[in-house]
Here is the input.
Amino acid sequence: MVEESTLSEAYIMIGGPQGSGLETSAQVLTVIFASHGYGVIANREYHSNIIGRHSYVAMTVNSVKTPRYFNYPFHTAAFMDAESVFVHYEDVGENSILVYDKGLDNVNIDNVVSIRSDTKERLLREYHAQGIDPTVRGITNYLRSSKGVQVVGLDYKSILSILREKFSVPLALARRYVSSIIVGAVVGSFGIASEDVIREGFKYRFRGREKIVESNTYIASLVAKEVMSQVKTFKLQEGRAIDDFSFVVSGNDVVAIGKVVGGVRFQSYYPITPAQDESFYLEGHMRITTSRGDLGGIVVFQTEDEIAAIGAALGAALTGTRAATATSGPGFDLMAENISWAYEAEVPVVITLYQRGGPSTGMPTRGSQEDLFAALFSGHGTTPRIVLASGDHEEAFYDAIKAQNLADKYQLPVIHLLDKFLANAIVTLQPPDLSNVMIERGKMITSYNKPEPYKRFSLSDGPISEFAPFGVKNAISWYTGLEHNEYGLVSEDPETRMKMVEKRISKFFLADKEIPEEGERAVLLPKDINISDVELLMVGWGSVKGVAVEAAKVLREQGIKAAYLHIRYFAPFPARYVSSLVSKVRKSGGLIVDVEHNEFGQAAHIIEMNTGIVIDKFILKYTGRPIYLNELVNAAKKIMKEKIDKVVLKYGA
Amino acid sequence: MVEESTLSEAYIMIGGPQGSGLETSAQVLTVIFASHGYGVIANREYHSNIIGRHSYVAMTVNSVKTPRYFNYPFHTAAFMDAESVFVHYEDVGENSILVYDKGLDNVNIDNVVSIRSDTKERLLREYHAQGIDPTVRGITNYLRSSKGVQVVGLDYKSILSILREKFSVPLALARRYVSSIIVGAVVGSFGIASEDVIREGFKYRFRGREKIVESNTYIASLVAKEVMSQVKTFKLQEGRAIDDFSFVVSGNDVVAIGKVVGGVRFQSYYPITPAQDESFYLEGHMRITTSRGDLGGIVVFQTEDEIAAIGAALGAALTGTRAATATSGPGFDLMAENISWAYEAEVPVVITLYQRGGPSTGMPTRGSQEDLFAALFSGHGTTPRIVLASGDHEEAFYDAIKAQNLADKYQLPVIHLLDKFLANAIVTLQPPDLSNVMIERGKMITSYNKPEPYKRFSLSDGPISEFAPFGVKNAISWYTGLEHNEYGLVSEDPETRMKMVEKRISKFFLADKEIPEEGERAVLLPKDINISDVELLMVGWGSVKGVAVEAAKVLREQGIKAAYLHIRYFAPFPARYVSSLVSKVRKSGGLIVDVEHNEFGQAAHIIEMNTGIVIDKFILKYTGRPIYLNELVNAAKKIMKEKIDKVVLKYGA
Amino acid sequence: MARKPEDYRTDLWVDWCPGCGNFGILTAISQAFAELSLEPEKTVVVAGIGCSGKIWQYFRVNGVHVLHGRPIPFATGIKLANPELTVIAIGGDGDLLGIGAGHFVALGRRNVDITVIMHNNQVYGLTKGQASPTLPYGVKTKALPAPNIQDMVNPIALALASGYTFVARAYAMDTKGLKEVIKKAIEHKGSAFIDVLQPCVTYNDVYTVQFYRKALYKLEDDPNWDPVVKSPEEEIEKKTQAFIKSYEWGSRIPIGIFYVNPLKPTYEERLRERIPTYLEKPPAKQEIATNGGRPVLTIKDIVEVFSDRIVYRRKRIN
Amino acid sequence: MARKPEDYRTDLWVDWCPGCGNFGILTAISQAFAELSLEPEKTVVVAGIGCSGKIWQYFRVNGVHVLHGRPIPFATGIKLANPELTVIAIGGDGDLLGIGAGHFVALGRRNVDITVIMHNNQVYGLTKGQASPTLPYGVKTKALPAPNIQDMVNPIALALASGYTFVARAYAMDTKGLKEVIKKAIEHKGSAFIDVLQPCVTYNDVYTVQFYRKALYKLEDDPNWDPVVKSPEEEIEKKTQAFIKSYEWGSRIPIGIFYVNPLKPTYEERLRERIPTYLEKPPAKQEIATNGGRPVLTIKDIVEVFSDRIVYRRKRIN
Ligand SMILES: Cc1ncc(C[n+]2csc(CCOP(=O)(O)OP(=O)(O)O)c2C)c(N)n1
Ligand SMILES: Cc1ncc(C[n+]2csc(CCOP(=O)(O)OP(=O)(O)O)c2C)c(N)n1
Ligand code: SF4
Ligand code: SF4
Ligand SMILES: [Mg+2]
Ligand SMILES: [Mg+2]
Here is the structure.
């Protein structure tokens, strides 16, 4: 058939049960696109489950840049199982291509045990309202006839049976190849069926296992051809987003890499989703060797709990080692007391905090931005710390290094905030630019020769004292969580108390003075926007960045002068800069809308706490699924036009 | 000698090394005064130490009311040891009576090993500046000659030697009677030497141990007479503050009593200063029996850590038991994750949080108000909880009951905030008025007979669902920290997620709607003040109340129209009421001053976060010592007159 | 009325991996509940976080899914507040012996009458296969980047040292044997611990069904094996014999009851010494309010109960 | 240069109660440091919170006063980051076996080369005398409102079950014996634990100096006592013998070395298998920046080290 349209950007969804190769499909697809010059982002949604529950991957592929958002309707959707068809029937639209297993046509939703009752009831309600028969056939018929979807039913079983003939793969193992059906379905939708092209992906995935690469490539290509024969395919513009090579990394990976580059040589952790993959990745790279020799190694230490993780990191930090730990909400809570200790004892340490759906165990495999309060205020006493939040993979890399620098410079605990959306999204990433990257260790000293005894908490040279790690000759030091004198030895003297309290908090105020606000602690996007023109200023943080920047662009294209204010530091908060922007926008009659992934507007509250500015418009999402481009654009328009205060988003199965 | 002045209120200080009977003296004095109709408050300052370091008790005795503040200069100061003389030399003024041990005259501060070097250096600097010889003699000479203090040097050793002769107390035990010298010195300063009067105190303290009562009474009376013979004594007006009887309780005690009255039948704890005394007191009263029979008992459970303490309390709460735990900052941090769980699982539980000097272990035996942020925001995720703070012992009693009611009504965790000042201060307290005290258990049910299965998290009747404790026939229930459906069973459905998120937060908003603001969540004092008249509105919380109310009174007497706004609930915050008061004051040109015990103005930040009101005047104290009346009055005047933004207080050794 | 195991099950789909040992444990516990004919409303399963921790939702008895590592404190609070309830605490090896090891040790000192069931799969299942505290040193299961760097803790020896009065090991695939042990543990008065060897088909390719089939043997097959303490003097001897047995780990692994001491008073019995009416009127069953919603304690009661804090006004001073 | 115990002491006033057993421990440790001639800059004392925990400030070696219960995690982090340091973790019985019991068990699995010294006074000293985890059931020390309701945990048995490779008990008032044990523990390669019986004169009126004087006897006085594992086969036997001994508590209480296993690799040795240069270039000794303050890793290095995350651009599609 003829290719229909030429796209610079495509939206892809693949779905199937957990543990059935969906991650393989996603990885293979990402590499296929990346190795041919496309920018890619892929986000996997999954239940807190190992095998069997529904999972899906949303991808955006762009020919000129690495996209940082998702959108619907999807151009193509390829599903492994019946559940995917049942839950994603609304994700495709006119001309979308949907590939599914014809062998499942008779499956009724009632028989899909892995769908929980509440979801089932909701879907049945919806089907009923639209007169859809609750079977796979019913859904696909509806999509085909009422929605204009190009539905392709393939008989997966007979496709897989080819494996036995051609590659003597026993039937029992053949199920593993469903992932290549999915790969084929997707690439086929874009008119790609070349084995050469497809092989790139499988080669990356199954490094060195020739036979597996070949058989998978064969199936994928076969399916691609079949799909191409049945639909009007989409055509992607040539991939020009990547030149020589690209990193293909998750947010977890990129933080791990940033840490190694930034000099972290001790990372302690207790496994927790979605933080753990960072530590696993580091664990696989404990030895740092390159062709120019042995560059040392990073000790990655799996502890018995998160209290031990932060405790061990603090211990390591006292030796002058750059030390970090990575965790998520529940684990972070357990670190609170030690954060308070680190503040009191002025020990530089970095805690990488990956937010997930809360409270409590909440929705551990879903995304959220709701640990901001905890990041800022956990730990008793007045314990200001530096809190910075990354908006995308690029920021995450540099922030991982920056966090260590800030910890060393101000001898404070630093919380590096990320979220599951960012952590688990796999993207193509330009090789980092190290030309501006410095390793700043602040007042750390490696020798001490003064005649007087070393004072770890000396008050004589500003609020920050020289830090001699354990082992430095002539510089014995003492640390305590109790109030202490300049030597670090206990004191309850009221005057000493006052001086030390003021010393510590002055470091925070110093950071507030020294770290630039505009462009560093908060970023107005797009860069060239004229703030006095802005009618709609979205304020957000973390992974909202990607979609908000794009939404602002779309809105501007539609005539609404929109911009996005990206908050990167919540402490010290860029109060002056944010205040000035907000008042400029308000002065010219523009609206300020808080966009974030929680029900309370946590960031809006922090803005209010720091500036007195009350933000009263909200676009919030708390389903655990990412904000999609279209829903954000629509919500923004609604707020602009209907003068309502709050839109709650809910797109995504 | 002749009595000089007639006082309605007196300030008393006694000092000595820890573990040497100072607490005995304080208790005996309190009882002597209380049993003769005076209102008393006594606060002990002490180091984190068991025996040997310096401790002192400040007392205020009032003839018509129970005072809730301390003041200087002290009318009388009686000291056991040299250190007290060295560190408290500035606490007495003209005509003050100072009683000390003449036997220590030659002691040089250099030889007092228990004074830490920083304190010693500071004192020596001060002595030097004033030309004081750094011996006990030097100090007392200075006080006598330059300050007009009535110094009474007694030879403690020879006084104690009387014990052997008269009561055959061996010399080795005689040291224990220094506490009665102190008692005698104090009562003597007020012209009291009657053995009958003094005996009341020792009888209470040494219940049933006749001989000890007699010997102590004898010594005290002897000393009293001696002091009376050497000074112009003060005369106290007749005690009319107490009628039939009074409670003499610490803040810890009063919360414990409130809990028992309020129906708490399970209290778990891990020992920590200054919370532990509440649990110990309960532990001594596990069996609740009165003359009308056995009223049951309270299980007090010492756990292995604070995680277990809150965990066990939550477990107990699931059985329908009113359950609570009590802790301080470090222990509270460890509870964060479970607070988040309690919010998610909607389990009513009360955490009594006694603030002490932080961060970290900080100054564990000193006072502070710096755990407000932690109380409000500890625990990951959006987890609003009810946070109420008591301002004095009366409030603490009712709040202990109220906290349980609120927990049950809104099925939320409730944090009851107190501070060390309040916890350890011993006061006379009017018997509580139970006429308005109700036990409100909200939607708790004890039987379930509906045909449909019980839904613990039913959405059908507003945000609060019926709570059937474990064991109720036909009502099986499930609880999880994961997102869940109406039965409490796990769900990751986006729609269910949204509904449940909204259900939970609506309870908090409901509390905000239902709990009165004016008079309950915030109290303007004095009650009859006209807000539009107020020139100076102090805003504070917790134990600032006592001194701020009195300071406002003093200021008004001095012509400054001052008032005190006492914040009792920080969540839900009384935003409308506070905003309206503040804007009224500001409109008429008055000043708003935040008064609290931390370096950051935590409460001011919370006000800003909730109202957008920026408070820019501060009176702060963070030495760990209470705010004294005179220093607060002076600071307030300074702010009024000198237009400065911040006064940091530092009175007290 | 005879109850069936199905009566104790919800109709939720069980989302463990096909072939997972947890299925056997689920079956065995349901059977034990049925055979003991426990009242569902008076039974509480407290579970931690992990694959193992998911079990709570599959029982139609009261369930509490707590935080990772915390089943024991919750179970203790529930039991002490309402000792009428039968309380089972369930967790993974990471849950109970990693993050929760402190509580595990503490329960041994208390002898609260609850049953602790540990799903021992040597891995952190739900977080994708890291080494758990029971995986031996040098063993490389599927998901590990390198052989395990930490030693294993010996759960049986740890339970013995901590003071549990019922200590057993069972095998998840031997549902009948497991069920019998669970019944005994529940019937035991005091803190009972069962270390259940549980194959994890997804991440543990070392301690597999095949492995266990060869290695396991039953203590009860030795007619001389008697784990029960019959008099206080026997305590150390029986404990030691169990301790020695607990170190058999390798090609031969014993399952069965290692140690039982029925002689120690439970925590609940100890509480009665402080509150004589504790068992009749435990916390959950006390009236705390009158019909009118007022506190049961009147001012007069308060003054009596807290008489040590009352000072009476005497004559005037001076 | 011979060092004296005083060289290892600060000049702070020691603020324990007169007569407290902690003085003996302070003396013994200083003596051990001196006799081993440890470099103060390369020695770290990590202490918890409690009366015991105050000890850190009295040593003129690096000191870290951590949170209650957390000496072991901190000590582990310090040691692993800089294995050149001699690291001693000190805590009370509440600190190490109450709130810190989870870490205590975990260290046993790692055999990190640190020495753990526990001040065992059977009470929570600094919080005014509550029962600690080592106080036996039914005993009523001074500050308790009623006899202790919890059983004691057996520290020696727990250490054995957890995997410590050096396990000993000593007596605070026998400074010489204690000092010798400390020296051996520090010299031992691996995780060492010393349970130090420490009279608390203020709150513990049961386990007093008078009591211990009668009850204590020395293991080494038995010429047949040999706690050292000489071959892997001996491990369980030696452990069992120590386990049995550990239950002697009452009128006769053994002190001395219960168990030593020098054969287990330390955690540091195990790390070398993952990072061959670990001991020469441990974390604390690696250069992480060039002279110009730039990261040592260049872009080329990054691409090499993380080559598994690099995708190269191939030919054009279509
Ligand atoms: C405080 C905290 N830390 C970490 C986690 C993440 N987590 C979930 S399950 C789990 C481990 C599960 O292992 P195990 O207890 O052995 O149970 P299994 O899955 O093997 O049955 C961890 C670490 C968590 N939920 N909470
Ligand atoms: C998290 C936390 N909980 C409680 C405390 C209070 N606390 C201080 S010392 C101590 C116990 C001390 O007992 P132990 O460890 O036996 O030491 P000892 O004083 O007997 O030497 C406790 C509970 C604390 N500092 N931190
Ligand atoms: S991962 Fe292992 S333990 Fe978890 S469900 Fe699968 S097989 Fe069972
Ligand atoms: S309370 Fe006990 S342990 Fe603490 S210093 Fe005093 S005697 Fe020593
Ligand atoms: Mg496990
Ligand atoms: Mg102790």
Observations:
- Chain D touches chain B through 27 residues (CB under 8 Å).
